[in-house]
User: Fold this.
Amino acid sequence: MLDRLTPNPGSRKPRHRKGRGMGSGHGRTCGRGQKGAGARSGSKRRTWHEGGQMPLSRRLPKFGFTNIFRTPRQVVNLRDLQRFEAGSTVDAASLRECGLVARLDQPVKLLAQGDISVALSVRVDAVSEGARKKIEGAGGSVEIIATPRRKPGAAER
Assistant:
């Protein structure tokens, strides 16, 4: 029966052969239109090219401010720490093993969403006040570690 296998009807179409005569439907100008840059050989349009139309980047309103020195923080909530055993130390490396943070070179901030019932020793870069109170209320401790990080754009010396 393997000799009678055929592709599903309509799944395979013949490729367009441009410039192969008028009968092919893609002769003469080969789908490039009449004149202009698009009709010439070697012409490529950039993705953002909009012809003579006012570009999207100029049509949209400009507002706000982007701080180029902002350090992105990886957020972990208290409800995520329930998986750790009582008395264990929670730091960036242990959070990475559990899949709660993606990178070790970015600071970790602990937020107070959820509750915690186990006493943990937490070592992270930043903690919200609510999270600190909940951890200490459960019998745990919080230690803020200041990790030196290179500022973006700082020249290598």
